[in-house]
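BUG: 3D viewer hangs when loading the predicted structure for this chain

Environment: internal workstation, default settings.
Expected: structure renders.
Actual: progress bar stalls at 90%.

Input used:
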Amino acid sequence: MKKITQVICIMLLVVVSANAQQEKGIMGYNNWLNNWTEFKPNKVDYGEANQILAGNISSNTKLLKRNVYVLQGNVYVTNNAVLTIEPGTLIIGDFETKGTLVVTKGAQIIADGLETDPIVFTTNRSLKKAGDWGGIVILGEAPINRFGNAGSYNLDLDPALTTYGGDNVASNSGILRFVRVEFAGKKVKGSTSGGFNGITFAGVGNQTIVENVMVSFSAGDSFAFFGGDLNATKLVSYKSINDDFKFTQGVQCRLHNSLAIRSSYLSSNKDGSRCMEVASYEKKNETDFTKKGTLVVASNITMLNDSENIKADIQAGLVKEAVYIAENASLEMKRSVISGFNPAVLLDSKTEINDANLKKIKIEEMYLNLCNGNIFTEYNANNEDLESWYGNPVFFNVMSQSDNNETFIDFLNPKKPDFRLKLGKITASSGNK
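Structure tokens produced before the viewer hung:
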């Protein structure tokens, strides 16, 4: 009886240990990337559009799967209207007119796809490239930290229709679920921001549902969050030119179980291009510091560079940091994987290393792999204090130097990759450095 009890205890320990190991990075008993994602969208022939979307959508409207729609120019959902999109519907952004969909303040988008029938936004060019069309802009009524609690997402859009921000933390801009956005982020001449993003959330409230959304080959940021208060899960950014996830203007965001894949040769290696950028503001003189600064709580995130020779790419200057944290911003990151960056995390040079700031930047239970340094301060050659602080066993951070194909379950699968961490990669001890 005693031996049976011991065997059961050992089996339970193995199960608990395996579950604990798998919980770093994206997680799930099954690969949740299957069925609805597309890692080679340039190879897909989506067909020709038979319906045009243009101008203002000012009354409740439904887009049907049986049609293929083309976005011509700037298309606005206005007048508190609801734009509903059936699962499996295809919307094509027009290259010549920079097709862009703007969901204005008070309006909603209900793009509720299915795992087996996702909603797809893509380009109408035969030779598809990042920045072929504008993207999706969702403007809400939740707080931002600019003076007057209001902002305007201008670019070349109508200023009267692009205001965002307010006092309604629980505002609802709709649903984005099982949605793909491909080749968006067109540049705008004369714009200081450069251009559009794959999806921009500005002042979006926490009743909005954002889950299972993939943005691939965006010329701007894949996902940009300007203020607001929202939850997001199972987001995928694939080979963005700029940031995969950008947070600013006092956004309060809980990001969970999400993935960013970068390329040394496609993603920009210039300043302002990372997996994750966390900032409290863009312009200090427009910021109301009596309001909340940006807070991002990120758990089970996987950020990786898919290079076949990361060390050589780092030496060639093609690889930057995965995460950048600007002054006055807060990031709590746990149970996440960062693989193949230079370094893993970089703090703004204006951030003083003291108890107050270290409490705002929590990096715990991480798996940091193939990184040229772990947590550094910008322009600082001596980062021993930071490395020692975050390397303390109390934080359970693990450092490793393993090839990506040894680190992830099915890294090299071109159609159905599996970027979950291999169970054997994490040990119970944080001493594996």
